[in-house]
Amino acid sequence: MAARPSAQPVFHKPDLQQKRNQRERDMTKQPNILFIMADDHASKAISCYGARINQTPNLDRIADEGMRLNHCYVTNSICTPSRAAILTGTYNHVNCVTTLDTPINNRLPNVAKHLRVGGYQTAIVGKWHLGEGKDHEPTGFDFWSVLPGQGEYFDPYMIEMGEEVEVPGYATDIITDKSLNWLEGRDKDKPFFLMCHHKAPHREWEPHPKNRDLYQDDIEIPVTFDDDYKNRAKAAAEAKMRIKDDMKYIDLGLVQPEGGAEVGERTFPHSTMRKIPNPEDVSNLRLIDTDTGEVFTFETRQQLAHFKYQRYLKRYLRTIASIDESVGRILDYLDDNDLADNTIIIYTSDQGFFLGEHGWFDKRFMYEESFQMPFLVRFPKEIAAGTVCDDIISNVDFAPTFLDFAGLTVPSYMQGNSVRSLLKGQTPADWQEIAYHRYWMHRDPNHNAYSHYGVRDQRYKLIYWYNDGFDLPGTNHGGEDREWELFDCKQDPMELFNVYDDENYQDIVVQMTKALETKMLEIGDDPEHTHPPRLPNAV
């Protein structure tokens, strides 16, 4: 198809009478819902979460004018299953989207379909990642324009209402332009539900040229960067997600030399992309910047490891700078068109991400950096400005919450719960302070992450590594020893000490095992473990 330009949005500010009319309509109309989601955006890379590695003034504005949630968790820390859980309000054993290679059946009910029936005009723009073709493309949306697969940062192809076109420009800008254009041209007599899904900051972290010079100063290296993975399940040591060993040349904006194994290990079978070596002797290693041609040499392995970390994190943060700018544009649009007061705006990610903690990049694990999602929300009518919520919620709760705010019935098939009362600062007496996670994609060729499930409450985290792929797409067979982990997240927030076999925690083991089994029974997920009688590291 011939390329077509990404039209720049042209907006007309309403006059004073239009604004008054809009306010009057807002008093009686359902609220608009604007759901902005990034891909792999760690909470620590949003400045209002306090890590101080970058500044995100526009994202912070949502928190300053609304609420920040500190304990929002993903039910399966990987892109496709998380998106299915958000869309359907169900866990992955119910919606059957368990791995990256299991697309959604678009005949399933979803929150957009319910909202459209309930009077909303609906749209999704950006990353879909739930499959292509008639059986998997978006349904329930009046308008959709989505990236196929992971999508590209520059001049991405997009599938718009079934037609694939190449759109010149930078993906974050394009997704924002398309979202704003849809808002401008929508039916103003209907409330809207817009899902604005950014590709960034997903790997390979290609920043906009204007942001390539951001973050010149080195960023502090996490204290667990040189983790030796002792006293934990085997899965931690076996994962191929180490910054030192598993980064590709393209990840870091470096030229991949010609050659075979001497250049680096393949990223996965049949791939032409290679990992940057981590040799014992680094004196002969020369790395070249793709953009500038600068040559980098090294005297020690530690110097090389820190170089990789800085290149990775700065590129990652530079892609986030564009997201923050885009959010600012959308917030300004809502303000200029007198929509801010009657629009629920949410910013989140499809999961967390490791930013060098334990020496890792990527996600997949139930360890906190991967498990926790950012969640910022603003709705002046109900949410007090500058508030913080420490209650536990999960991504299956998003869909019921949207329907609750819309005044629509939450269908019985949805397994999450509306968090509306929490956002108003009112925690129900029976609120479950527990989050369930299950990662199904056992030992995928790229990352070798082991399958597991578990629960987290306000203090403790119990994980069971059942280590079996069950022949699901994208998995490998099991056979590894099954293991339990228990972490005291208060005493050990970095999750360095598995206390499952510690005699001082045996009552907690019983308590958390019961919580796990109760949750699995509630949601209908089949356990892979046996429990009575309880023996140290019994399976």
Folded structure, characterized:
The chain is 25% helix and 16% strand. α6 (171-185) runs parallel beside α9 (301-336). The chain has helices at residues 16-26, 57-64, 79-88, 92-95, 111-117, 171-185, 234-238, 243-246, 301-336, 368-371, 398-405, 420-423, 506-523, and strands spanning 32-38, 67-73, 121-127, 143-147, 157-160, 163-166, 192-197, 287-288, 295-296, 343-349, 372-378, 387-394, 435-439, 452-456, 460-465, 483-488. It contains 13 helices and 16 strands. A hairpin with a 6-residue loop joins β8 and β9. The radius of gyration is 23 Å and the shape is globular. By secondary structure, it is an alpha/beta fold. The strands form 3 sheets. It has a 10-stranded mixed beta sheet, with helices on both faces. It has a 4-stranded antiparallel beta sheet with strand order 13-14-15-16, covered by helices on one side. Strands 8-9 form a two-stranded antiparallel ribbon. It has a domain at 437-523: Arylsulfatase, C-terminal domain, CATH 3.30.1120. The termini are far apart.
